[in-house]
Amino acid sequence: MTEKITSGQNKKVKQWRALTTKKGRKATQTYLLEGWHLVQEAIKAHHDLTAIMGTAEQLADHAAELPAGVATYELTDSIAQTIGDTGTPQGIFATVPLPKDTAGDPQTADGVWLFLDYVQDPGNIGTMVRTADAAGLTGVVFGKGTASRFLPKVLRSMQGSQFHIQLVEADLHDWISAFTARHLPVYGTNLDRNAKSYRDVPPLTAGAIVMGNEGNGMAPDLQQMTTRNLYIPIKGQAESLNVAVAAGVVMFRLVS
Amino acid sequence: MTEKITSGQNKKVKQWRALTTKKGRKATQTYLLEGWHLVQEAIKAHHDLTAIMGTAEQLADHAAELPAGVATYELTDSIAQTIGDTGTPQGIFATVPLPKDTAGDPQTADGVWLFLDYVQDPGNIGTMVRTADAAGLTGVVFGKGTASRFLPKVLRSMQGSQFHIQLVEADLHDWISAFTARHLPVYGTNLDRNAKSYRDVPPLTAGAIVMGNEGNGMAPDLQQMTTRNLYIPIKGQAESLNVAVAAGVVMFRLVS
């Protein structure tokens, strides 16, 4: 059963528009997936969908892949353009429940984790989650100051990896202490050229890698809690690497 | 000598505003550096500057580092806000000459080069140039379809690496043929899981790595010209890596 919506003043349309804000997500306990790629990733992962919304054309194009039993809404083209964050929306969306448990448990977490300390750029954050997924990590912990994983730009650059690996919001002090108490190595990253090279440590099968803020790097108090802090040697004259590139280089060296 | 400009209708102000367009850059044969970091990189590299423009505050803050003999213009805050591309300009800018020779010579080029085939996202392009600089490459060739290196967003993400390594615009067919004729390895990248892993080739001291379009990868005709095409094995469920992350992983494995 598909309900047609033709008024931009419709209550549901207003709720969907509000999903680009934290307040709007909290009100309905859902967040928005924009575009077929993300909707498809949720379907493939058998993730709960609370609604599917699209233009007549988009709903018809993907009819064979849309799951039965999910409330579906047909939108006019002009309404579809007012939902979501992208300048040129594809005209298909879904809403999914906000995860209930975002805390995770550092006492039992296994495999390798990426810890994000005060990473601010949404594109960098989403790209690191996607790379962590590709490199075979278990999950990513969003520490204090790190932008929300429900921001439209984070969701876009994650490309659906939130359905593949665990994402947790927590205090990194707790996770670093728990891992080191369990004798799992936690490798911080450091801009100091005298730190140990990332090439000089053994591969990780369980433990964590910490990436810090784009401008300032990892917080000094967290650096003092890690097993060791690693540096990526720079051969040329660039002062530093983009944080998502640095994370990729380290994860593919130590984990994948 | 600093000239004060108080009218937004000033001819020079109009020229500077036009530098975000190709036509504007061509008219004055210059391009725009926005923000102190990029201006400082140009100064440190002893690069020619044709003008320095800034608010009274910014010019005073950086007076000790500004080179003598360059035409300097003091702008009102409101004029400074109309120049350049960033939403929150820092209030300091410089213009530098467009490079005269952008062709390069694949017959004599030495070291390792990054070839970009139809890469479209300005942030990805700039990040790859910055990473190539950090990894110790000699230069980057901007092939057909790759966005211009003078776009404001490319310039921002390069972070001044255009002053450290060579940037060339050319047909990649010519560069790949010339390198392979000189027996220099050219490694393409491939999304085919049956291709050779990037870990299974020896380090490069001279040659090239080719990165392709974000959605479609390298053009098939170029793939057939390379020495070999490499694949980055994906362990998790992500379908692919961001192109700038993939380039970083390969460059730091094969070159740095």
TrEMBL record, chains A, B:
Gene3D superfamilies: 3.30.1330.30, 3.40.1280.10. It comes from the Bacteria. InterPro entries: Alpha/beta_knot_MTases, MRM3-like_sub_bind, Ribosomal_eL30-like_sf, rRNA_Methyltransferase, SpoU_MeTrfase, SpoU_subst-bd, tRNA_m1G_MTases_N. GO terms for cellular component: cytoplasm. SUPFAM superfamilies: alpha/beta knot, L30e-like. Pfam families: MRM3-like_sub_bind (PF22435), SpoU_methylase (PF00588). One of its GO terms (molecular function) is RNA methyltransferase activity. Keywords: Methyltransferase, Transferase. Residues 32-102 form the RNA 2-O ribose methyltransferase substrate binding domain. Transmembrane segments: none annotated. One of its GO terms (biological process) is methylation. Belongs to the class IV-like SAM-binding methyltransferase superfamily. RNA methyltransferase TrmH family. This is RNA methyltransferase. It comes from Levilactobacillus suantsaiihabitans.
